[in-house]
Structures are given as structure tokens and as C-alpha cells.
Design goal:
DUF6472 domain-containing protein; DUF6472; globular
Length: 60
């Protein structure tokens, strides 16, 4: 799993307003979830840097 500091910069780490906490919102199927939970990672293999400017670049 990713460290807390890494999750804070991930684009999949979003605030849930209903429950008032942050959560990982990556969509994994059953096989991917089992593989993710069973492997011991030093960092999250699904980490993707959440850069607000990358969204703006795509719109141009």
C-alpha cells in the first residue's frame, strides 16, 4: 500500500463529502483487488500524480 504522503498527491485519493474523509476511488475488479491486497508493495502500483494543470492542458 502507498504511504499516506503518497496518497495525498494521487488523483485517485478523493474526499468523500457524505462520510467526511478521504478514500481511494480506483476501480478494481475482483482479480485485481486480490492481487493488490495479497502483494506487499513499498508503494502503490496504481499511483498517478494528480496535477490540476494536466486537466487544463487536455482542454486546450
Amino acid at each position: 500500500m502507498a504511504k499516506k504522503s503518497s496518497c495525498e498527491y494521487c488523483m485517485y485519493y478523493q474526499y468523500n463529502e457524505d462520510y467526511e474523509y478521504y478514500e481511494c476511488v480506483i476501480n478494481l475488479d475482483e482479480d485485481e483487488m486480490m492481487r493488490f491486497l495479497s502483494d506487499s508493495h513499498q508503494s502503490c502500483p496504481h499511483f498517478k500524480y494528480g496535477d490540476d494543470y494536466s486537466v487544463v492542458k487536455k482542454q486546450m
